[in-house]
Amino acid sequence: MFSSSAFRLRRRVRPWLLPRLAGESELDHRTRQNEEYFSEQVLETHDWWKRVGEHFNFSNASVLDLGCGHGAMSISVAEAGASEVLGLDLDADRIAFASGVVRQRYPGLAGKVHFACQDILSLSQRHHYDYVLSKDSFEHIDDLQSVVNSIAILLKPGGKLIVGFSPLYYSPFGDHGNLKLPRLWLHAVLPEKWLLRWVSAKERRRIGKISDLGLNQLTPVEFRSMFPASHWRIISLKYNRGSRRFMPLMSALRKITPLEKYFTVNIYAVIEATGVAQPSEREPQKRAV
Asked: Lowest CB count within 10 Å: 38, 88, 181, 192, which one?
């Protein structure tokens, strides 16, 4: 386990930006990046649960980890007693790494933890999972409402969605560096067509929309609207979690309605599925003749 000070130093170069070393093969470089990413996830998982701020009993639970990355969250939940954990991610390289980590380092979990490079919309289970977890993925998912509807079907009645993600698009660093802009909030106030021209020139390829960069521009209002009381019960909904010094000011400013989306950095929520059928589950209505 790394110390917190060592972790802060390591964050200066994110794992996916680690340069290739002299004489290092492409495979060895990618493996080293994945190892660094996994180590970072192990540390971030602890902080993520603190921000969620709730306690859960995973003993004998069935769990789906949406956007599992390199598998650290899935492994930690299995170690906490879950009987079945499925980690989903659309990055085949990450799924291959996560599967290898379980085989090589956690052989005792091999029968409990499985990973798949698969879209959640293609899962066929109905009311199967006790928990669906999603760490730092909701801000990237295109057509998020369809994903949320699928989660409602996958969860057992009374099952819980535990989600936390950061930063939201319109917050100071919400472009995740993908737009390659030099100043805070610039991406949130400039016309989108200018942003697309800028990043297309920087990337030397045509970027047609912001979602092409893996950013869905989700706002707090849009997030809340995805969980109607007819299908969900909100257990906890928390904003701007974390210990950074600017968070109290951000939290105060986000309470001003027109400013909410610009000053909401993160969302952490626990939401229970009520078991009411989603539209896709209901029998088709017969048309009157």
From this structure: 192
Q: What integer pLDDT is reported at residue 152 of this predicted model?
A: 97
User: Whole-number mean pLDDT of the chain?
Assistant: 90
Give the pTM.
0.89
Q: How many CB atoms lie within 10 A of CB 113?
A: 25
Handedness of CA 271, 77, 241, 119 (dihedral sign): negative
Q: List alpha helices for the chain, DSSP H.
A: 4-10, 26-52, 72-79, 92-105, 144-154, 186-189, 192-203, 220-225, 247-253, 260-263
Determine contact, residues 116/87, Cβ cutoff 8 Å: yes
Helices and strands (H and E) in the chain: how many: 10, 7
Q: Which domains does the chain have, with CATH numbers?
A: 59-278 (3.40.50.150)
What single DSSP character describes residue 118?
Answer: -
Instruction: Give residue 52's identity as a one-letter amino acid code.
Output: V
Given pLDDT bands bounded at 50, 70 and 90, which one contains residue 185?
Answer: very high
